[in-house]
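Let's practice the habit of predicting before peeking. Look at the sequence and jot down your guess about where helices and strands might fall. Then scroll down.
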Amino acid sequence: MRKALFFILAAAVAAAGVWGWMAWKGRSSSPTWQLARIEQGALISQVSSTGTVEAVITVEVGSQVSGQIKELLADFNSEVSAGQIIARIDPVNFEARVRQAEADLAVAQANVAIQRSAVVKAQVALAEARRGLDRNRALYARSSVSKSQIDESESLFDQAAAQVKMSDDQVRQAQAQVQLREASLLASRTDLDHTIIRSPVDGVVISRRVDRGQTVAANLQAPTFFTIAQDLKEMQVIVNLDEADIGRIQTGQRAKFTVDAFPGEDFSGLVIQVRKAAQTMQNVVTYPVVVSAPNPDLRLLPGMTATVNIVVDERQDVLKAPNAALRFRPSRETGVSGSGGAGSPGTGGATQSGSSRASRAAEEAETRLRGLTKALDLSEEQQTRIRDMYAQGRERIRAMYMQGASKEDIQEEVKKMRDRGRESLLPVLTPEQREKFARLLSARAASPSQPGRLWVPGPDNRPVAIEVMTGAGDGSFTQIVRGEVRAGQEVIVGESHPAAARSAGRPPGRLGF
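Done guessing? Here is the structure:
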């Protein structure tokens, strides 16, 4: 029993020792870094959204009159030309109305003739009354008739004159009735003509909403028969963009889009209109943006859903870091040995010497010079003068390092030198280059840089921070505008701990015999 108890106790002590040693080893193990490289190349910033493919001009063809559809002479996908008959409404009732209006017009015209005859009769009676009045006046002068006869003749003359005037008024009234009947006839004939539905434009029928024999009623609005797209070779995509992105959209920007009907194939277009008609849905404000969509082979169809990417910024030959590296933060279990940044010695986890800092500054200057040369088409002489300007700036910063200036003072001096350098650069450039340089500065001002932080493996495998300034991004990479990083340098995007990986899934407090 004593021997058995001794062996059990010894085994327990050994197991506890092994377990403690493994736990200590796990805690003391260094984390494993997940690394990615800083790249140099093109960076394209895009705004993405979905939209609908539509024809540039779409016309809805309807009817202005009510009735039963007698004929349909066009169908889906029918190509029609302007003025072509595409449908007919039963014209029987409208033809009857036209005949009735024609009869009414004939009656009115006959009434005009009757009234004109009455005018002639009244004029004859007036002439007879005038002759009788003149005769009685002559007889009265010879005392052959009495005064009462003269008065009677004058009364007859006045009545005849009034009858002539009334007959003239009746003629004008009859003529007005003729005009009224003519207008009624014109309206009836117009309604009859509207029973023939014609295409207003050249195009393709993309929708038909009625059938033969159907009765349509045109009361407050015209019923729609067909929808005609004028030209399917020139399409457009209507995409709604969030108000946070609409400020970056301008007409003329390049756009690419895809449709589910042709997976893996890109279609190109341009932003042709940014509409100011705001739309609010579920407290989200969007604005319609129109993107052109050339369709020479007629593969794009109205109503397709398109995924649109609008290029809002494009930069060539820039340093760019993975977004995961800018989002990374060391965990609490990871020790941090120090931080590095612009003007600090902690770059890449090792202390830089003055010569290495100078070399790094020269590399950055050459990178900026290459960018300016490509953007402004600089000559060799201009490149030499600008390179001398950069060299003078480096000497100034180097002297400040040697004098033990603080990091803040150096950064402030760098900012002042940058401002002075832009002013000194203008005399070196031609007028055309100055305009390009002004546009370049405007583009940079439109997308200002933001501070960021990258982490690199340092001494004892501890992460070292590098302060950088970031610019535009494309969703996967972000431009590094300023900072002590270089193309090909490895940065941390994630970490894993061996101790945590080994102990994952094992309940705490249990020994793994």
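How did you do? The CA atoms of residues 168 and 445 lie 85 Å apart.
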